[in-house]
Amino acid sequence: MRRRSAPVLFIVFALIVTMLGAPVALAVTREDLLTHEKAAAAARAAAAAAEKKASELAGEIDSLEDRMNVIEKDLAALADDISGATTRTERLKAEVDALRAQADAKQAQINANQAEYDSEQAELAARLQDSYKQGDMFFLEILLGSKDIEDLITRTTLAQRMMRQNQENAQALDTARVALDQAKSDLDRSLEAVEIKRAEAETEQKRLQGLRSKQKARLADQKAAQNEKEALFAANKKEASRLRALAEAEEAESDKIAQELYGTGSGYYSGVMSWPVPGFYRVSSPFGPRICPFHGRENHSGIDIGRSISPPKSIDGAAIMAAGAGTVIYAGSRSGYGNTVMIDHGNGVVTLYAHQQGGGIKVSVGQRVSKGDRIGTVGSTGYSTGPHLHFETRVNGTPVNPMKYLK
Predict the structure, then answer these.
(1) Which of 23, 114, 179, 345 is the most exposed place for a label (fewest CB within 10 A)?
(2) What is the residue extent of each domain of the chain?
(3) 161-179 burial string, b = 16+ CB within 10 Å, else e?
(4) Is 0.70 topped by the overall pTM?
């Protein structure tokens, strides 16, 4: 019995020490717990404030982008209008110059014809005056002065020729006068056309000047909006650090996906893929290198399909469709990508649909889908400053431009 008493005493002693020390340990743990709880609450509040600020910033930037998109549309329309007005003004000026040249040529011809007409009219008037002064006895004297019958015939023919010539000259002058009157009338119409064209050209020129003034004003608006946007970015450098971390997370996840999908498939896809978000066709960020205002230069591994600008329409909650037939190989959350679906189309070709709504995924791993089947819902999970679909096409894990496959 004594041999067993030592272990028992040791155990009892240990329990006593534990009981005596328990209040002290409990007090320290409670204090530490309160400290950590306060720190955690402060961190959550700070995170919530940062998220709120980021959301407000995203909203302001979206508003500015809407403004800039409207301005860009106005500028594009103005550019087309200015181009058309410039072409029309130049054409009208050319028409005015051509009409002016034709009018000048007509005037020169009229002047020449008028001079010839005046000369012939003066000559005829002189002849008629001589005939009037000499009277009918002039022709009678010519006939009576004949020496013989042949001379009579000759003198008669001459007298007839003189009278006929006078008549023909008078008729020719009448015809020339009618032609001159017609030419003058044509010239008046040409001059009227010149004035009409000139007035039209002046009106178009004034309209062109107004368009250029409007274009200048819209360019100033565009510059102001751009400056405002840059100021917003500059004022939120701290937010840039957070978003940079998210971007790096997305890039790391992209690299991880590339490793997971690594293979030696041919990359062949039969047919053409369908657009993944029917009704929303604005690509807010294309595939390839881009400059992100938050974290500088980056390589965008897909395309971002955003809200509709004209008419304005939110993409949040829009249905996501399978771009092609295949098997779902991933359906869940992936770091910076947020809620993501990946579909294997065979031959190493995989499509990826990221940033879906929480609970918005409509398929599961292993499920076979057809082209156009609904697979999810547009949202803003993961690295995202607003609702959009990040759509990728990968061949053996390497991102390629989705536009090569889409219809």
Answers:
(1) 23
(2) 65-234, 240-404
(3) eeeeeeeebeeebeebeee
(4) no
Alpha helices in 276-316 (DSSP H): none
Can you give the pLDDT of all 407 residues of the chain as single tens digits?
A: 444 444 444 444 444 444 444 443 334 445 544 554 555 455 445 545 555 565 566 666 667 667 767 776 776 776 777 777 678 777 777 877 876 787 687 677 677 777 766 776 676 666 656 554 454 555 555 556 666 666 666 656 766 676 677 677 777 777 777 777 777 777 778 778 778 877 877 887 888 788 888 888 888 887 787 777 677 766 665 566 665 666 676 777 788 888 888 888 888 998 999 999 999 999 988 998 866 554 456 778 999 999 998 888 999 999 999 999 999 999 999 988 999 999 999 999 999 999 999 999 999 999 999 999 999 999 999 878 789 999 999 999 999 999 999 97
Residue for token pair 């057809």: 370
Pairing of the two strands 303-305 and 389-395:
antiparallel
CA distance 40 to 93: 77
How many whole angstroms from its chain centre is CA 318? 25
Measured CA to CA, the distance from residue 285 to residue 312 in angstroms comes to 18
Element (H, E) at 113: helix 2-134
* CATH architecture of the domain with residue range 65-234: Orthogonal Bundle (1.10)
| Kind of pairing between the strands at 374-377 and 296-300 | unpaired
Q: Which tokens go with 108?
A: 């020169």
What separation, in Å, do the N-terminal and C-terminal C-alpha atoms of the chain show?
A: 92
Cβ pair 391, 382 in contact under 8 A: no
Q: Is-contact 314 307, C-beta < 8 A? A: yes
At the topology level, CATH places domain 240-404 in: Glucose Permease (Domain IIA) (2.70.70)
CA distance linking residue 266 with residue 156, whole number of Å: 113
Contact residues for 165 (Cβ-Cβ < 8 A; gap 6+): none
- How many residues in total does the chain contain? 407
> What are the φ/ψ torsions at residue 321 (nearest 5 degrees)?
-110, 150
Q: Is 240-404 the same fold as 65-234? A: no
Burial of residue 25, with CB atoms counted within 10 A of its CB: 0-12 exposed, 13-18 middle, 19 or more buried = exposed
